[in-house]
Amino acid sequence: MTESGTLPTIRLMETTGSAEHIRSLHELVVGSSDIHGILNGVTGFACDAMSKVAGENIDCALTLRRRKRTATVAGSSERAVQLDMIEQGLGEGPCLEALDVGHPVLLADVATDTNWPLYSAALAAEGIHSALGVPMDLGETSQAVINFFAPTAGTFTEAVIAEAAAFADVAGSTLRLAIRIETVEQLNADLKTAMSSRTVIDLACGVIMAQNRCSQDEAFEFLTKASSHRNKKLHAVASDIIAHLTGGSDNHLRFED
């Protein structure tokens, strides 16, 4: 390990559990309804996998950052999330540095670490004596990092770190897929909303055209003016007109100056 706490490049090992991880994580994407559920599932898998490799209970948290969105934090337990939030609050630690350098960063022993003294002290107070941050490759628009926490020092040997990096590599491909699916679903939802708004506006224009014997352009201009005068969105004004009509009122809609 270098003085900064970063690790030399480690060649990812082929692990017997990789195929199982891939199947389980991809099933997670299919079975989860939102990205937060997927993140919680990933940390749960990571906790189980790393605890088996390390031979002791490992807590796991994951932070996802996406452009123009607030960071999403998930964990294998509430304690794991709290430990991750401590690092975020202090602005220092292996998890944050791993995001910057792009490879695993180790805090081997909170009793001897000099790189992040405040974070080391905070972890010690929580009964955690070593931690490991492993970044995930999600492309240009997103960042994610997994934080592993161990109750004893020296838990994260080179073999354990290699296993963590291999898991993060597999989980990263799963998250990329999940983010793409969520993006497409959001675009579809936005399109449906836009189409719904367009339909209401078109219907309102039709009502105005019928009642005032005017063109579609003139009817749309009426809607625009009404929107400005009432300080309401165009869709809201159109909805009012449709509601006014279906409510059975005989009042005639006329142009405003």
UniProtKB/TrEMBL annotation:
> Record keywords: Zinc included?
no
Q: Which Pfam families match?
A: ANTAR, GAF_2
- Superkingdom in the source lineage: Bacteria
Segments traversing the membrane: none
Which residue numbers delimit the ANTAR domain?
A: 181-242
Q: What keywords appear on the UniProt entry? A: Kinase, Transcription, Transcription regulation, Transferase
Q: Does the keyword Kinase apply?
A: yes
One function term, GO molecular function aspect: RNA binding
Query: Per its record, how is this protein called by name?
Result: ANTAR domain protein
